[in-house]
Amino acid sequence: MKKLADYKVGESIDLYLLIKQSIKGVTQQGSSFMTLVLQDKSGDIEAKLWDTKEEHALLYAAASIVKVGGELHDYRGKNQLRIKTIRPVKEDEGISISELVPSAEKSKEVLLEELMQYFFEMKNPHIQRITRHLLKKHQSAFMTYPAATKNHHDYVSGLIDHVVSMLKLGKALADLYPSLNKDLLYAGIILHDVGKVVELSGPIATQYTIEGNLLGHITIMVNEISKAADELEIAGEEVMLLQHMVLSHHGKEEWGSPKRPMLKEAEILHYIDNIDAKMNMLDRALGKTEPGEFTERIFPLDNRSFYKPGIE
Amino acid sequence: MKKLADYKVGESIDLYLLIKQSIKGVTQQGSSFMTLVLQDKSGDIEAKLWDTKEEHALLYAAASIVKVGGELHDYRGKNQLRIKTIRPVKEDEGISISELVPSAEKSKEVLLEELMQYFFEMKNPHIQRITRHLLKKHQSAFMTYPAATKNHHDYVSGLIDHVVSMLKLGKALADLYPSLNKDLLYAGIILHDVGKVVELSGPIATQYTIEGNLLGHITIMVNEISKAADELEIAGEEVMLLQHMVLSHHGKEEWGSPKRPMLKEAEILHYIDNIDAKMNMLDRALGKTEPGEFTERIFPLDNRSFYKPGIE
Amino acid sequence: MKKLADYKVGESIDLYLLIKQSIKGVTQQGSSFMTLVLQDKSGDIEAKLWDTKEEHALLYAAASIVKVGGELHDYRGKNQLRIKTIRPVKEDEGISISELVPSAEKSKEVLLEELMQYFFEMKNPHIQRITRHLLKKHQSAFMTYPAATKNHHDYVSGLIDHVVSMLKLGKALADLYPSLNKDLLYAGIILHDVGKVVELSGPIATQYTIEGNLLGHITIMVNEISKAADELEIAGEEVMLLQHMVLSHHGKEEWGSPKRPMLKEAEILHYIDNIDAKMNMLDRALGKTEPGEFTERIFPLDNRSFYKPGIE
Amino acid sequence: MKKLADYKVGESIDLYLLIKQSIKGVTQQGSSFMTLVLQDKSGDIEAKLWDTKEEHALLYAAASIVKVGGELHDYRGKNQLRIKTIRPVKEDEGISISELVPSAEKSKEVLLEELMQYFFEMKNPHIQRITRHLLKKHQSAFMTYPAATKNHHDYVSGLIDHVVSMLKLGKALADLYPSLNKDLLYAGIILHDVGKVVELSGPIATQYTIEGNLLGHITIMVNEISKAADELEIAGEEVMLLQHMVLSHHGKEEWGSPKRPMLKEAEILHYIDNIDAKMNMLDRALGKTEPGEFTERIFPLDNRSFYKPGIE
Amino acid sequence: MKKLADYKVGESIDLYLLIKQSIKGVTQQGSSFMTLVLQDKSGDIEAKLWDTKEEHALLYAAASIVKVGGELHDYRGKNQLRIKTIRPVKEDEGISISELVPSAEKSKEVLLEELMQYFFEMKNPHIQRITRHLLKKHQSAFMTYPAATKNHHDYVSGLIDHVVSMLKLGKALADLYPSLNKDLLYAGIILHDVGKVVELSGPIATQYTIEGNLLGHITIMVNEISKAADELEIAGEEVMLLQHMVLSHHGKEEWGSPKRPMLKEAEILHYIDNIDAKMNMLDRALGKTEPGEFTERIFPLDNRSFYKPGIE
Amino acid sequence: MKKLADYKVGESIDLYLLIKQSIKGVTQQGSSFMTLVLQDKSGDIEAKLWDTKEEHALLYAAASIVKVGGELHDYRGKNQLRIKTIRPVKEDEGISISELVPSAEKSKEVLLEELMQYFFEMKNPHIQRITRHLLKKHQSAFMTYPAATKNHHDYVSGLIDHVVSMLKLGKALADLYPSLNKDLLYAGIILHDVGKVVELSGPIATQYTIEGNLLGHITIMVNEISKAADELEIAGEEVMLLQHMVLSHHGKEEWGSPKRPMLKEAEILHYIDNIDAKMNMLDRALGKTEPGEFTERIFPLDNRSFYKPGIE
Fold first, then answer.
1. Contact list, A75 vs chain E (CB under 8 Å)
2. Touching D: A residues 116-155, CB under 8 Å
3. Looking at the partner chain, which of E26, E210, E213 has a beta carbon nearest the beta carbon of A74?
4. How far is residue D250 CA from its own chain's centroid?
5. What residue in C sits closest to A35 (Cα-Cα)?
6. What is the pLDDT of residues B201-210, one digit of tens each?
7. Which chains does F contact via 3+ CB–CB distances below 8 A?
8. Which NCBIfam families did the record assign (chains A, B, C, D, E, F) (predicted)?
């Protein structure tokens, strides 16, 4: 079935879409309107709803599903949708939000299964038990949350998708550099961003929570490791080492890690996190670019444009 | 009784001193010697012990008390002690370490009593209970540890001395700016550096512990607040607010706070900490300087020299 | 009487307002309009005047008082006024500008009296005489100017309000740290920003003067101290010390002080200035914020948002 | 056979050693001496030769082999050799320099063979031909030079060792992220540091050449690619792409790359280079450290100390 | 004849103009329009063309000449042209692009002649031959290209204009500081920006080329010097010195020079380039400013405003 | 007559020398010695005086002239003098300090005459009168002071030497860029560093004064301009413009200018100052370097080494 991203300027659409964002406005002349961001799995698009009334705010609030007819046109270099018809979805049409939000390519169950394989290569019982305990405690959210509100892996199950990809890279590195401790490295990869399930509001229309703003996912997770060790009655250096892995994974104080990596595995964790996030951003930006052209500027990559070679 | 700091170049001494540091060396020609740093309450001094033997290392290890005779001379602008006689103290001479290390002017008991008064101005029961709980848990170390290994309040009971001084300043500010929340501010002041009792090794010959290096006193204390709340079965915003107060008190990411202050009281806590530490450093450096002269460079004050005016 | 800040979106107003800013514009279709910023003591609001003619520019210039009728609406998250009727105030209506601009809570006379008390604690005659001389010379402007064009204490008599608040804080610090020299500290507080009366254009519609741009209030005031000493025939270290207090009060070269503080009192002056300015900004921003919410971003506080706790 | 690194303080040695560095000195009292750095495959050590004469300078110049007897002692925490006997090696003793300098674990022939395998995965004929051409042109030096004068892979054949290790990592990444272009990535890895064979003086007693100082290995290699393309009469985007890979591999302007990476493969090349260099430095530093201890500070890793866990 | 810059707001024009930029747009209501930037030698102006059709895009593409009638009005402090009539120029009207683009005051032939005089003061045959060779190779573009896409010397023949001005300044400096080597200095000035003829797209509607983005004019020119030396069979230090002059002329790594200047002449070249560019920007900005006023902010001069004194 | 700089290692000297610096020391074994820095016009050298007594400190204090016999030797790559005989000069030997300190090549009278010529090109009477007034007021010190304590023009009359050289460069620039205002530029050059006569202690054994440390030469001179204008009863923009020229001549806040240049002439003054200082440092460092070698690192030039080409 044709999706939002498959339509071109000038074409007409008639689709079920999810309202990702909904903002009320008033024109300079004083009449009301609404700006909607509408999405399906393939992407999103902006649309204006002119001359709106009070009741429209509720009808077309964020996270609602609507049936929309209209036409695509180009507004300042970005596609925009001119709405001709719009109505809330009816219950009996049987459309669920999960059909309309982008998500990891693999199912969350498959991803979890892949992740669980890595425990078999871990030997240290303390590290294993703490990691399993925390994974289990947060498993449901961990399997559906995105890894970030934007930029990279910002889709349903993006967090576990990112972690599984990092584990693969971690295994490749541990094979090439056998002095790396797999227990620390794999546990660090699995736990490093679990704090996001508290820092962020959820898988849809994701925002920062108050606790996310005031403490941040790093501190949240370091606390969790501490509590897990208490609950499991585990003492020993492993607790501190795992906390340090999470604490230092942003690599520098100015990037939010109060301690720089002081374990070889912590240094490598920082690199693995970076490479996987950057590959995700680059693949996405280059996917929208023609050979022989430059991508749009990518803010978290120092605002650089990348070139897509014309050669094959 | 005349103390180490009272002697001048050329004078002879005959004193009980504590060995603060003890390092073995070999001259370029191959003979052994030891470099000792000797101290009493008034200050410390370097001394060389020439042509030493294996057994001297044990006899004159750090934290031992010795009876030393010798003469002060100037070596490259710093006083040095030429040792003429040295021997370990005998048990029946009755000299204890506490007589030989600098400490806060007031006794730790007096300081604790002053500190406890501030609880009477606090109203929020959650904040009070968590703060009292953690103070009690770490009370013994909290009353004897220094606030730092060097630079400011780096003496026995320096930590509680610093905290009481900050509380006084906090009260003055809360009086001038009544919108400040005293619960948060006082609790933040009391708790902000308690993590030092884990980060540092102890009141004498203080060094960083492994946990201190890998986690740091901020993270250690944020964990402790989290556990205290669990033990006391306190839930609610107060826990997160207290954690944020401690987390952000270094003021900037590059100074070790993974979150900048986002509470008015957290911003002010950072200032109070700074002012009290700087006044301590400045008073110490200016105390060693003549009117009309500049102090030595003070590294943690951006390596500045300060001028001591000639006017009164 | 109900003021501008008391009205909500949708309500009608009929008020005397001061035109704070007046800018002419042309629509893309070529018709003329004016953008006015209108204010009373409680705040300000933007309004558009459509299809204007040449003569309106004069009639509705900045610093004019007008009688305005209209309705508040929301434009891109900011309140805006839809003007229905507007006319210049008539002389016999007896509205003065001072009724329409925000100002310090206390009267300038009260503030001056409070300030003068601090001279009684000063002992050094040279410092006192120079400070009194310069205060007298610039007294009239000093009592009405704001401390800045925006951000903090940016209202009529904001400068003296800021200085009196700083003196209180200075006194509290001098009581806690008795080694501080009150002569230097109080004189430094009083004089540090007097140069603003040359740097800025006046209490209303405040802008930077050319001299303000090319020299700045710090340099202007350091010159003034030098001249005052000559006029009063005062020689001696005090002149240089006062100049250094003013010169260094921004704390760092990159913040406009060509010398960093090299006097203990200069270091503390920098802190006092900072704390008082920040408390003013924070109280203002938090005053507009609901408990459990974050303030808007505050640019001069590193663009941070602050959280207003929900606890009491 | 026992090597330099196997001896402990107090033991006597009698070894063939290479003079790595030789510097003349005069004592403050005016007598001549020489400071030698002596090495074998296992490491190096400093030694003093007292009361030397003119002719000793030639006899014991850098890159000479000597037979040395003496004893190890500790000087300021570093081992030093007290020379008792020293003489130049005799030709018939059959000692070659290659026996006395550290080198890659695998032979350069084996490393080259491993490297050549990667050409089989490359498809683009232009990229292949340019890469092969430049490899052949500089092959002899490329196989013996170190990758740097110090810090990482600073031994004979260190350059090719580093490149082969990077190729393995590159292959692992290309397998995980199939969108990576192997032609660009492998060619970039092979060529990125070939300019070092001009920038540095040679495999022994390595220093920067004048051209190395004034142009640097990046610029040198970018020129070489340009010339190679001309000689092979290859035109087309590939030339520019290869030049960009080399040009940008330091990642940032301030690290010596006049252009930041603008190709996905260039971004990844920068990471691969970093990871392999850091693993080499970390393994070396941790190899000299006991479990439960911290390494010495590693300057190119932001001067950090790393912790070697006590757990297994 | 009256030019674009001579008209004031409210006046009518009827002029031949060059379309410098042409961008299609759609109003929020969905109708098409075009934004044109129109220029003649005296400057440029923005204009809107409303309700356009498909065919207009071709008719009014960038680099086309048009005959335009209309009226100037002010839009947000910038002049804008309200188009009343517009049509493509006819061939028999005999208007050429060169009549409509700003260019250096002197003709390119005169500038070249001035430049060539400096060869007479050069003595080193290697430096001379390489410089002449490269000048000849790129002469045609070198004589017409701008020195930059904006900011300074951004007009037809701006590059050679900038170079000739720099040569004059170079000669003045060489006269004042006779230790400067004129061969290196003059050759460095002539060659430093020749790479711009590859980095930029041409004299009209100038943009960066792909090669310009990926390699940059510095690297491009350093390659060219290398090739020129090969073609001329010149070996010797001069080649490396010239490469270093070009390589380092941006002065710092973060400004795009992978090596900082390490030759006295390279250091001076950087200053000459800076002074001449800044004088060009300052004269332009001050030319548009009234005495007693400040210029607009000049971005490449750290975003500063400059004051134009009222004195004569 | 052969001077200090003409002797080589191994040669004997017998010269009158000035003691530039004199520092007492004690060996680790406890005997006294003195470290002297001895100079004549050609340069300076370090020497040790062993086994000294109390009275030697006075006899061989800084700024004394001595007759010294001894031998040059090399100590850690620096020449050092082994003293064999030393005695204070006798009055009847008729040696004056001025014969033994380096100074500008031209006499101060000639330099002043050259400087005065530039007044003939100045037209604005206010600027002229203020500049002449301040030159006259400080003329005597201005003609003998160095421009700095080290790095550049750090010799007797170095200040006026630097200013005259800058005036020549200023004239060359004003000829090339006729829009420059010569009044401002020349006055700015003459006045920019006059404050050094207060900031520094004098022409011999130059140090910073207290006022120099607390206020700095920029602030001192800006005050002086202000006072001069008052004394000469000159009002008008010129006073402010001259103050800005001096105030901004370090170019950036972090380099000690509280305002960045906002006048074209101020921007150029900063460049002229820089170029002249750098040429002085470079000529000095390159003068001590052989062709084909690098200079020692030059700290104020970002610690760079410069290459002295082998070509002529």
1. 25-26, 28
2. 124
3. E26
4. 17
5. C76
6. 988 878 899 9
7. B, C, D, E
8. PRK13480.1
Question: Which residues of chain D lie closer than 8 angstroms to F75, CB-CB?
Answer: 25-26, 28
Residue B64 belongs to what H/E stretch? Answer: none
Residue D213: list chain F partners with CB under 8 A: 294, 305, 307
Selected for mutation to probe chain B from C252, C265, C279 (highest B CB count within 10 Å) is: C279
The amino acid at residue D148 is A
Distance (Å, rounded) from C-alpha E223 to C-alpha D247? 12
Would you say C41 and C49 are in contact if contact means Cβ atoms under 8 Å apart? no
**CA nearest B218: which of B183, B257, B190?**
B257
As to burial, measured by CB atoms within 10 angstroms (0-12 exposed, 13-18 middle, 19+ buried), residue F268 is: buried
SS3 assignment, position C53:
coil
d(CA A193, CA A149): 13
- The H-or-E segment that residue C14 falls in is strand C12-26
CB under 8 Å to D246, separation ≥6 — which residues?
D188, D191, D192, D195, D218, D221, D222, D225
Closest-approach residue (CA) in chain B for A240: B211
| Residues of A whose CB is below 8 A from D306 | 261-264, 267
Cβ contact A209:A199 at 8 Å: yes
* Interchain proximity D75–B214, CB inside 8 Å: no
Whole-structure pTM value: 0.89
Encoded amino acid at D298, one letter: I
- Mapped onto helix, strand or coil, the DSSP state of residue D231 is helix
- Closest Cβ–Cβ partner in D175, D179, D271 for A275: D271
Q: Give yes or no for a contact between D302 and D278, defined as CB atoms under 8 angstroms apart.
A: no
User: pLDDT tens per residue, chain A (312 residues)?
Assistant: 788 888 887 789 999 999 988 888 777 666 788 889 898 888 888 898 888 888 888 889 888 899 999 988 776 556 788 899 999 999 899 898 888 888 889 999 999 999 999 999 999 999 999 999 999 999 999 999 999 988 899 889 999 999 999 999 999 999 999 999 999 999 999 999 999 999 999 888 788 999 999 999 999 999 999 999 999 999 999 999 999 999 999 999 999 999 999 999 999 999 999 999 999 999 988 988 899 999 988 989 999 999 999 986
ipTM: 0.86
Q: Is the pLDDT of residue D77 over 60?
A: no
- State how far the Cα of D126 lies from the Cα of D178, in Å rounded to an integer: 21
- Whether E307 sits inside 8 A of C213 (CB atoms) is yes
Q: Does D254 touch chain E (CB under 8 A)?
A: yes
Q: Provide the 8-state DSSP code for F32.
A: E
User: With contact defined as beta carbons under 8 Å apart, do E149 and E206 qualify?
Assistant: yes
Separation between Cα atoms, residue E200 and residue E217, nearest integer Å: 9
> How many CB atoms lie under 10 A from the CB of residue B265?
28
Question: How far is A133 from E25, CA to CA, in rounded Å?
Answer: 57
pLDDT at E50 over 90: no
- CA nearest neighbour of F173 among F265, F281, F274: F265
Q: Residue F54 corresponds to which tokens in the numbers above? A: 């109390």
Q: Over the stretch E56-86, which tens digit does the pLDDT of each residue have?
A: 888 898 888 999 999 887 765 567 888 999 9
Q: In the Cβ-directed half-sphere of F197, how many Cα atoms lie within 13 Å?
A: 20
Show residues of chain D in contact with F74, CB under 8 Å: 24, 26
